[in-house]
Amino acid sequence: MTDKAPVVRIEAAPTARRAQARNEARRAEAKAERTAYAHRIAEALKRSGAVVIDCRDDAQRQEARAAGRLAGRIRGVSVRTTVVEGRVAVFEPDRSANPLQVRLDERRANRALDEAFRKAGPLTGPWPDETR
Q1: What's this model's pTM, rounded to 2 decimal places?
Q2: Residue 61 and residue 112: Cα distance in Å, rounded?
Q3: For an engineered disulfide with 50, which of 11, 22, 32, 91 has Cβ 3.0 to 4.6 Å away?
């Protein structure tokens, strides 16, 4: 018998192709989840300039730091990530260098204070015109 069996590559086998397709689908789903996570972080960075993310273990911390860096790339700004007491802090170190961003942050802070004063009243006692 000189006839040899045909050589079939493993990656061409139907079960290997299905396994590879499932693996690629899992990777695509994980990438989509990471991107969505990074977009949420980017929105929070846009509002406040810093985000603190609670993490349970080192794997979550690594994932949060990677998502924070991706959020910076999405926004087109430089970000720093650091671990503080088991939580991951993502912040924009150059945010105060932009005078327009400083004005926007001040306005947001003043608006939040005005809203708090409207709801709770003054913190030091009655208004001056209400003394009598």
Answers
A1: 0.65
A2: 31
A3: 91
